[in-house]
Amino acid sequence: MTTIQYVAGTALALLAFVMMANFVVFLYARGVVRSAVDEGARADGPVDATPADCESRARDVLADLLGGGLGRAVSVSCREAGGVVTARATASFASWIPGVIPDWSFKLAGTTVKEREP
């Protein structure tokens, strides 16, 4: 009887550890996406920059800090309207243990003011 209790206790402890690790990875990924949209928006701030520069910079940040499946789960787009540059990201991260840990989806935006020629 003690062996069954030990195995069950160990399994629950490992499950709790995996759940916490998955949560920490999701938080890290959210921070990377936040940095990517901020960097992307800043890249399109100068007068001669374009929305393509914004998207390129955001993708570079994602590629450097969030590779693999998590990086592929993020889409970035940039727009310039009314002198304001907006970089938007949509992410949908799959959980490590489907049915036990929920998937996590979110949208983030970063903005900056476009420089004007003097």
Overview of this protein structure:
53% of the residues lie in helices and 24% in strands. The protein has 118 residues and is α+β, with helices and mostly antiparallel strands. It has one domain. The chain has a three-stranded antiparallel sheet. Strand 1 and strand 2 form a beta hairpin. The chain is rod-shaped. The protein starts with a helix and ends in a 5-residue tail after the last strand.
Question: What is this entry, summarized?
Answer:
This protein is α+β, with helices and mostly antiparallel strands and 118 residues long.
Radius of gyration: 20 Å
- What overall form do the CA principal axes indicate? rod-shaped
* Beta-strand fraction estimate: 15-25%
Strand tally, please? 3
Largest sheet: 3 strands, antiparallel
Query: Mean of residue pLDDT?
Result: 93
Which properties best describe this structure?
single chain; 118 residues; alpha+beta; 3-stranded antiparallel sheet; 53% helix
Q: What is the element layout, followed by pairings?
A:
Blueprint: H1 2-43, H2 51-65, H3 68-72, E1 74-81, E2 84-93, E3 104-113
Antiparallel strand pairs: 1-2, 2-3
